[in-house]
Automatic annotation (TrEMBL):
Belongs to the group II decarboxylase family. Residues 23-52, 633-738 are annotated as: Disordered. Its cofactor is pyridoxal 5'-phosphate. This is Pyridoxal-dependent decarboxylase domain-containing protein 1. Residues 450-555 form the PDXDC1-like third domain. It comes from Tokudaia muenninki (Okinawa island spiny rat). SUPFAM superfamilies: PLP-dependent transferases. One of its GO terms (biological process) is carboxylic acid metabolic process. Keywords: Decarboxylase, Lyase, Pyridoxal phosphate.
Length: 738
């Protein structure tokens, strides 16, 4: 290879060949099949000669580049099924459409070169964009062309028939007629062959007829244009080859780095294309196509088709698998050709039916529809983030659609080649989706129950935050809580911080966090997703009791601090008073150092031991006389008991908090326990009766066998009690295992 590169006459190309050697190896992710393995394929007239087959080696490619640079050829090689077209290569994807708009303006306004803006002012041009177009496209065109935003016309999508992501052709025609009546000039229409959100294709054939009728330039863009390289192409996408221009992004489709986008167009006036910036006489501008040209030459038709076909097969595999999964809705237009799959989680509950069924929105309360829509959007956003972490090879994205809400998008044509997505990754994705469905359904079912429990509990406030993907949000209202103020609440923050710590220490399957992230509202406790059946009443009661305990303990500590401070002051006063009394009792002479010692030697003073102790429970000073007399410390006042909940649930061994136990097993356990206790009582009564008979005075002799019969009855009852106890132990063990 290196020796062959040295034979090339141009030293620059030889150096470039060495640098591109490693880069071209990056394009070969998988071994390509040889012609002997594939068999010879028929040559198509639509495919340029250099692209036919399985590609070329680097020496041949560089030799062709040398011939192009030193020769007189000015034409660019043809790409796709687009016939008799010219190509414009650009780095920014939207740049080609902006140049096409300039070409359309110069074509429709003959005096634009001379009069400029005055021509547009007298007859304002109109650019039509679909409501499903990629965000920011219209603003970009107006900024590049120097046009006001009033020159944009947003065409709504279908609402009654057809896909909700396809342009409404009938409404478009009405808009065109209205613009003509108002003295405007319909200039250009941007159609989609694969919308940016869900990959749906507009009715391009019908749009082409409409554009020819009113003299409008038709431009097409979208990810589905990549399927033009396949053997089978849907009729809706094939109609794009008859448009006036189209934009292709082969770098994204084929996983090629640093490859420009291509805009193909048809126009007969080279002077206008030069003015519009679509053609250039500068050699540097022609070299923009070099990275793409080298990559396509290296891949060949087989490599291009293989990568596009692989992406479409991944999409079809995911679609077929998702059809078998409950609670998953697929937004699919054409299952055979669309390389994009968009899906979302949904569940029809009795309280949520109006939000999902196809009924007029006017017949449903807007607040209810909006709340349930936001709740499902939050759950789908959580699902998308979880799947992105679990299966990063699939390159999933979370997108918000105006008509359908938050969805998860799988577009292997844009990511599969870079991430190396394979069929096994799609199977793993399906497994992860199925594992998350129980969590989603359980959480959605518990949200309303949690709301009702919180609203029925004193001291708790339910916070309606539909964007939170969990059971719900709750806030504890303390005694000094001001609901009308949004100022900082240190006491409430302290209580909620302690509550969050206590809840996390319970080691339950639920997740707790304190919010919100933005300080626009007061502190709350956010409860996460539920992975199993949760006892909501126990959860709410635990939150209420724990928060109340934290508040009372905090107030007790504050009160104790104040009591201790007052006790210290009182102790200082009493100590000073005791010193004064001792001074009066002993006299002044005893306070003089030398005289006092002599006087105390001749006449000792019998001083009583007086001390003070502070009772924290009673909050007062007490005398230590009792301690000195009885040699024990006083018991003082018994502290008040800690407040507990109204009910305490007995959990089985190994059962985590907030788990709802099986009612059938509980009934069996309770019945067994009651029966066991009754049998034990009978045995005790019978035994006491026998002992009483033996201790009584000798009475008439018992009949033969009476003692044996009583003993057998006693033994039978004891055996029955033992069996009941064994059954009860087995039930408890079964509950623990469950």
């Amino acid at each position: 290879m290196d020796a062959s590169l040295e034979k090339i006459a141009d030293p620059t190309l030889a150096e470039m060949g060495k640098n591109l050697k490693e880069a071209m190896r990056m394009l070969e992710n998988n071994p390509r099949r040889t012609e002997e393995e594939n068999g010879k394929k028929p040559v198509s007239e639509d495919i340029p000669g250099p692209l036919q087959g399985s590609g070329q080696d680097m020496v041949s490619i560089l030799q062709s580049v040398q011939n192009l640079m030193h020769g007189d050829e000015d034409e660019e090689p043809q790409i796709t099924r687009y016939e008799n077209g010219c190509a414009y290569f650009h780095e920014e994807e939207r740049e080609g459409l902006a140049k096409i708009c300039r070409l359309a303006i110069h074509s429709r306004y003959e005096d634009f070169v001379v009069d400029g803006f005055n021509v547009l002012y007298n007859k304002k041009p109109v650019i039509y964009l679909s409501a499903a177009a990629r965000p920011g496209l219209g603003q970009y065109l107006c900024n590049q062309l120097g046009l006001p935003f009033s020159c944009l016309c947003r065409v709504p999508c279908n609402t009654m028939f057809g896909s909700q992501h396809q342009m409404d052709v009938a409404l478009l025609e009405k808009l065109i007629k209205d613009d003509i009546e108002r003295g405007r000039l319909p200039l250009l229409l941007v159609a989609n062959a694969g919308t940016a959100a869900v990959g749906h294709t507009d009715k391009i054939g019908r749009l082409k007829e409409l554009c020819e009728q009113y003299g409008i330039w038709l431009h097409v863009e979208g990810v589905n244009l990549a399927t033009l390289a396949l053997g089978y192409v849907s009729s809706s996408v094939l109609a794009a080859t008859k448009c006036d221009s189209m934009t292709l992004t082969p770098g994204l489709w084929l996983g090629l780095p640093a490859v420009p986008a291509v805009t193909l167009y048809k126009h007969d006036d080279p002077a206008l294309t030069l003015v519009a910036g679509l053609t250039s006489n500068k050699p540097a501008d022609k070299l923009r196509a070099l990275p793409l040209w080298l990559s396509l030459q290296y891949l060949g038709l087989d490599g291009i088709v293989e990568r596009i076909k692989h992406a479409c097969q991944l999409s079809q595999r995911l679609q077929e698998s998702l059809k078998k999964v409950n609670h998953i809705k697929i937004l699919v237009e054409d299952e055979l050709s669309s390389p994009v799959v968009v899906f979302r989680f949904f569940q029809e509950l009795p309280a949520l039916d109006p939000a999902f069924k196809a009924v007029p929105v006017s017949n449903i309360a807007p607040a209810a529809v909006g709340r349930e829509r936001h709740s499902c959007d939050a759950l789908n956003r959580w699902l998308g983030e979880q799947l992105k972490q679990l299966v990063p090879q699939c390159g999933l994205t979370v997108t918000d659609l105006e008509a359908d809400g938050t969805c998860v998008r799988f577009s292997p044509l844009m990511t599969a080649e870079v991430l190396g997505t394979q069929g096994e990754d799609v199977d793993q994705l399906i497994t992860c989706i199925q594992s998350k469905l129980p969590v989603l359904t359980c959480t959605l079912q518990l949200r309303e129950e949690f709301k009702q429990e919180v609203e029925g509990t004193a001291g708790l406030l339910y916070v309606d935050d539909p964007n939170w993907p969990g059971i719900g949000v709750v806030r504890y209202e303390h005694a000094n809580d001001d609901n009308t103020s949004l100022k900082s609440d240190p006491e409430g923050e302290k209580i909620h911080t302690g509550l969050l710590k206590k809840l996390n220490e319970l080691e339950s399957d639920l997740t707790f966090k304190m919010g919100p992230e933005y300080k626009s509202m007061k502190n709350c406790i956010y409860i996460g997703m539920a992975s199993d059946d949760v006892d909501v009443s126990e959860l709410v009661e635990t939150i209420s009791v724990t928060a109340r305990e934290i508040e009372e303990n905090s107030r007790l500590l504050e009160n104790m601090t104040e009591v201790v401070r007052k006790g210290i002051q009182e102790a200082q006063v009493q100590l000073q008073k005791a010193n004064e009394e001792r001074l009066l009792e002993e006299g002044v002479l005893r306070q003089i150092p030398v005289v006092g010692s002599v006087l105390n030697w001749f006449s000792p003073v019998q001083a009583s031991q007086k001390g003070r102790s502070f009772n924290l429970t009673a909050g007062c000073l007490e005398s230590t006389e009792y301690t000195y007399v009885h040699k024990v410390q006083g018991t003082g006042v018994t502290p008040p008991p800690t407040p507990l909940g109204t009910r305490s649930k007995q959990r089985l061994p190994g059962q985590k908090p907030f788990k709802r136990s099986l009612r059938g097993s509980d009934a069996v356990s309770e019945t067994s326990s009651v029966s066991h206790i009754e049998d034990l009582e009978k045995v005790e009564q019978l035994s006491s009766g026998l002992e009483h008979d033996n201790l009584e005075a000798q009475g008439p002799e018992q009949p033969p066998g009476a003692a044996d019969l009583t003993a057998r009855q006693t033994e039978a009852l004891q055996n029955k009690a033992q069996h009941q106890e064994d059954d009860h132990s087995q039930v408890e063990e079964l509950e623990r295992l469950r």
